[in-house]
Amino acid sequence: MEAHAHASVGHAELEIPYNVHPRPDTGVYNGKLGIWLFLASEVMLFGALFSSLILLRTGAESWPRGYEFLNIKLATFNTFILILSSVTVVMAWSHLRLGNLKKGRIYISATVLCALIFLTAKGFEYSHEFHEGRFPKTNNFLGIYFTMTGLHGLHILGGVIVFLYFLGPGAKMWAKEPERYTNRIEIVGLYWHFVDLVWIFLFPILYLM
Amino acid sequence: MNDPAAAVEPGADVHEHAGIGDPNAHHHSPEHILKEMRTYLVVFVSLAALTAITVFAFYQLKTYPLKIAITVALIIATIKGFLVAGFFMHLLSEKKVIYAVLIITVIFFIFLMALPVSHHANPFGS
Question: How many domains does chain A have?
Answer without folding.
Answer: 1
